[in-house]
Amino acid sequence: MPNKLNPKLHDYFESLPIRIKNEILELNCRIETLEELKLAVELIEQQDRCCGDL
């Protein structure tokens, strides 16, 4: 798990699909709360629906 992700979120992070985890690992941000993690997942999913592989 990356240093930029709160260790308390480990179980939630590990439950995500590998593609989503990889996208989160590429983000240049710190995720401290479950709400922030959920928002990151939601934004990644929205981008995939909207833009595909652009």
Report on the structure:
This protein is mainly α. The protein has helices spanning 10-14, 18-26, 34-51. The mean pLDDT is 88.
Give the averaged pLDDT, no decimals.
Answer: 88
Query: Nearest-angstrom radius of gyration?
Result: 11 Å
The helix/strand order is HHH
Derived structural class: mainly alpha
CA distance, first residue to last residue: 27 Å
* Apparent shape: globular
Tally of DSSP helical segments: 3
Largest sheet: none
Count all strands and give the number. 0
Tell me the β content: under 5%
Amount of helix: 55-70%
Descriptors for this entry?
single chain, 54 residues, mainly alpha, globular
Summarize the topology.
Elements: H1 10-14, H2 18-26, H3 34-51
Brief overview, please?
The protein is mainly alpha-helical and about 55 residues long.
